[in-house]
Structures
1.
Amino acid sequence: MDLRELNPAVKGLAVILCVLLLSFALNPVTPLLTLAATVIVTWSFGRVSWGRWLLLFAPFLLAACSYMAATVLFPRESMAPSPVLLQLGGFEVTRAAAELAASLGLRVLAFSALSLLFILTTDPTRLMLSLMQQCRMPPKLAYGILAGYQFLPLMQEEFRILRTAQRVRDGGFRRSRNPLLQLHRTAIPLLAGAIRKAERVSAAMVSKGFTDSPYRTFYKRVRVTAADWLFLALMVGIVLLSYLAAWRLGYTRLYNGEL
Amino acid sequence: MTRRPDELAVEVDGLRLAFEEEEEPVLNGLTFEVKKGEAVLVMGPSGSGKSTLAFCLNGIYPHAAEALLDGRVRILGQDVREAQPGELARKAGVVFQDFDSQFCMGKVEDELAFCLENLSVPPEQMDARMDKALAQVGLQAHRRSAIRELSGGQKQKLALACILAMRPELLILDEPVSNLDPFAAESFRSLVRELHARGAFTLLVVDHQPDGWAGWMSRLLVMEPGGTLAYDGDPRGYAELRLAAADKEANGSVPARQSGAAAEIGGEEAARVERPERGALPDAVRTPAPLAAIRTSAPSPPAAAVALPLAAETAAHLAARGLLAPGRPLPLTGEELVRAIVPGCLPAALEAVRGLCAQRSRRQPAGEPVLRLEQGVLRRGRRVILDGVNAAVRRGELLAVAGPNGAGKSTLAGVLGGLLRPDGGRLLLEGRPLARWSEREVRRRIGVVFQNPEHQFVAESVEAELAYSRNRRGVPAAQTAREVDAMLEAFRLAGRRAESPYRLSQGQKRRLSVASMLMDEQSILLCDEPTFGQDRHGTEQLMALLNERVRQGLSVVLITHDMELIHRYADRVLVLVEGSVVFDGPPPSLWDETDGFLASAHLVRPGLFSLIRLLEAAMRENGQEPGGGARPDEQLREVAAWTCAN
């Protein structure tokens, strides 16, 4: 199985189902197991480079850690009394607070790992083709999104040039500290350029015979195969097994809006 | 002139188009027909509605812009107003000017597929049609490439392949080569010519210059400001009318003036006479009698002159000296010109054309180097962008930098401007390493003009834009105001001083961006393709202004693809190929390099030098030796040698 070859729509559906199922869990075991399994699946079937994955995962890890620390150190007053695990200066860490923190933090990490699995192994063009072919997304929207996607590197380059041009204009003096003025100076030329480009691209698309008719033939068919359903079953199975494992370990509580 | 409707590709009758109810129409009362299979060139100054007309003819207007359209436009028998948007486009395809905003997919193959899918072509036929279209434009090897990896010329060919894959009956090219380097432009034009000769489509080309088109296209439409038609007919006929009018004027009012051709090609002063601001044209040029008869609307603004084929203008010059065989049609290409010369007069004709080249007024030899890059190296990741570049900018000279796309020209400008730090080598400003200058001092000495003027705008009005840097430096307001006034005057922006910079015309924006870079009395100005997106008039105005400043001691580095500009204005030219300097010397010696060398650097000789080559080749065929005579290049070389020695 190669995650890149899978049908993007079914892959997306699998990820969404997993996220939905996971959102009912309020124990550290279920998200931890799902997280571990997702990472294994990504690395064994995704041909994703470790470095890139870690780089993109790092911000989520940081956010989850600080979130967990806050939950542990400042627990809700309403929490039921439970044994103290650790004494940190003036702070008491109770077992209940630690479990709650771990559950919520790991859940965030599992969500991020699932999203990364999808993002890092999905080609945008195939995604749009699949959304048009399997989910009846209107071509007008799909090709519009693709055209916009082609713009991103151009916009990045334009932004870089813009900053250099304004550095020259500032002549070595500090830029004005007024953030509104800064925004105005950068946003207006970027927007003006983007609008003009968008107009040109849309004219070019129309002149290539693009209409808003929903009927069109497709050169590339993005098909749904047994492997796609297998992947879906695998991912949902992972989450269900994680629930089972948690239940065996005695965690039965479901999520009820705790923070 | 009634024909059966099925013979017509385009029927336009009383076309009037405006974007707002109360605004002036962009197209005003156009009437013309195009037969199937014809090749039509549409010319006109900017603002005359050429592109709008192209958009009308493939059905983007009136739908896309909700424009108000009067009169009748039928394309291949179908009324544009009755067709759905995109429907007409299936029979009438357009290639646009901006090669970076024509594609919506990432890969070559996907873009072609997009076009075929729009036509609901069965998928099993697509491969064959894609391969054929790519083969027609010579991009077979790039079927699976990413579009962003293609060069500008390749992108334009891909845009053409996309349209060809759709098997259009009408092909419209809207300034297709304006953004290409001269080499790619030439290759694109000959490709279109070949395809039209073999293909079964009607061709309509919008361009602001006729060379490379007019010689083989059967028909010329000249539009004028206000969106009316000034000429409709044979391209040769138009050149004849214009030259006759110029001749009449020359003999009538300004006896001392030389023929039109000379003025066209000659120095800046001559150029200014030839292309004054609109409205200042002499009457004779404004309305040649036969043109007035073709006019569709009676009292209209003066017809701003559009460029004539270089061969036609040169022919007029040679005819005035009796070197052209009488009774032959006016030549529109170099080959035609050679054939039109009186047998035996080739040496005299060669001398005369060489004379035209030398008319450029020479400046004083340039002074000492003010900016010098020694062994400059710049890497991006593992790629070496600049590989040991030596470049010196001398006081009071205009240094042109040319070379293929991606050769490192813009990077070199960045390094020279102190905006990119080189990985190796050193940069000396007035003899002192750049690192020993403060950023403020550097900016006061080196101005940088970017490709898109809007990137440089920081203020709310034209005046404030000019005053910006001086205000930041704390120069007294009264003094700044005086200098702003002088600058507004010099750059012809006084009438728009309170306007927002964004509301200026393209030419005015460009002039403002240059003016604001000279407010601190900068001594060096780096310009990265400042003529990009400018029309001929805008280019001329800008170059005249820069030239004036260079005379006063400003050093200008000009990155450009325009060989005519290099020929007319540059003192020296630096050619970069793959990050290395392969040529550094005066322009005439560059034109003397071999064809192979020029092709490797994606350069093309300016029109006159190509003519000289043709004449020389013709003489050799006749067994004559073209050498001899005082070659103007020789004198220039001496100047160059002198400059280099200093």
2.
Amino acid sequence: MLLIPCPWCGERDETEFRYGGQAHLARPLDPHATGDAEWAEYLFMRDNPKGWFRERWNHAAGCRRWFNMVRHTVTHEIAAVYKPDDPKPELPE
Amino acid sequence: MQRFSIVSLARNALTGHKDWPRYWRSPKPKAEYDAVIVGGGGHGLATAYYLAKEHGVTNIAVLEKGWLGGGNTGRNTTIVRSNYLWDESAHLYEHSLKLFEGLSQELNYNVMLSQRGVLNLAHNLGDVREGIRRVNANRLNGVDAEWLGPAQVQEFCPIVSISPSMRYPVMGATLQRRAGVARHDAVAWGFARGADALGVDIIQNCEVTGFDIREGRVRGLRTNQGDIATGKVGIVAAGHNSVLCEMAGVRLPIQSHPLQALVSEPIKPVHPCVVMSNAVHVYVSQSDKGELVMGAGIDSFNSYAQRGSFPVIEHQMAAVLELFPIFSRLRMLRTWGGIVDVCPDASPIIGRLPVEGLYLNGGWGTGGFKATPGSGHVFAHTIAREAPHPLAAPFAFERFTSGALIDEHGAAAVAH
């Protein structure tokens, strides 16, 4: 059970949120110059670390805004919450 | 290997059952193998068994970082079926179901396959149309399937409520009579015992810590029990496939999620089959011990914690009570989670990776148990012949570049 600190609303129950997967995925800038392998990389390939992970969440049953979170995928500890245009925080040790 | 039979049972009864041999040895790893399988769950052990049995590759090892079958093999809800929609999946899972039907004889080990029938319920018009379509698709592929109306559903499983006043009434169901459940531990142990008898080294408590890759080719791997030289590595590590492949420099389209299950206190036999429902989301059967075995949906977030959030269980219980009012006073005994490796199209990846000599059998996500023998069988062929088994070819890693995905979210039955 996660208690997620929405950067706009504060701590709320996990059930108010929707998960958005890995954060900071950039769509290829020039689709016409993008080959199959690069599309596959963008569409399907994902980091899946056992440890700290930068991920997207949406406060679906709250302010409905997107934000990013740094969470540990084994302990579920939350190290940082930041807005989409904030700089990427360093991952904890 | 001492074969089990009525004679060996009687002989051991005379000596108080103290002289049964161990199922498998616990050897130290050798310095070199022809092939190494990473992951000692059902799929990995089945792969080793068929490599030795069908392809004569016996100088192989199965490395398991914990204990045999202690991951998802021992954590699933034991359902076996093959009623998948697309041709590729139907053929693969049907291949597996057919192997399951002869598995106890093949392994001389009772895997307790019980073909009691699996119902997939429909609760709305979309479900009904999808269900009938799937029945037709299954029959065209030679997979047994029937469509039942609500009254027939209740006839087949009398404890299911078909009351029209339910929020999501039962409007029909698909039925696969040859589907059912099997003893999950027995599948792992049977394959381990069979593989060991054919000379396979099964090494537990052996964690892979890195790969030796030179000039784009696997030369060996590093483990906490020393380095092992080998030209072929098959990764069959379920939730940890991404972690291993990252060590080899390969990025996968896989995300690891917790999938929870739970059992009730044991009761007398009341539930004759397996009932699954995508719409209200529950799948439930009754074990031979009398416990109701129930599976939940996956937790949405990535995790390696082997535990999930409680709201998923609550949601699950609400669905159970909606469909089975008879269970309202039943107490739950325990819940647990396994880490499942989910692909974007809810279909597995079986085949070569971009490093020569490196093979992956993973991405089985929420429904790998039913495929255990078939998965091992086609993966062994793929490794031994260095070319995909015809049934495995559509499931190659390259499909994510070609775009030929096999979307089985409907038939996978667990909500993603």
